[in-house]
Amino acid sequence: MSPVISYQLSVTSYQLPDVSFQSIVLSDKFGACFSLITVYYSLITVYSSLITVYCSLKSPNPINCGKMRYGSKH
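Above: the chain sequence. Below: its structure as tokens.
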């Protein structure tokens, strides 16, 4: 009798202010993978929010804020 290997297939989508993310995971350790992805994207969201606050304090003009936020040098 051959051993039974089970896998879990999951599609996860995130729509954040600055990041769109979709992952398709086929793994027997999906829980750990999902936790790491969630923490990573939570950190990105916090970092993005801090940049927005800093930018707003530095320049109340939204156009300048957008240039600073996305790294444009124009």
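Residues 10 and 25 are 6 Å apart (CA to CA).
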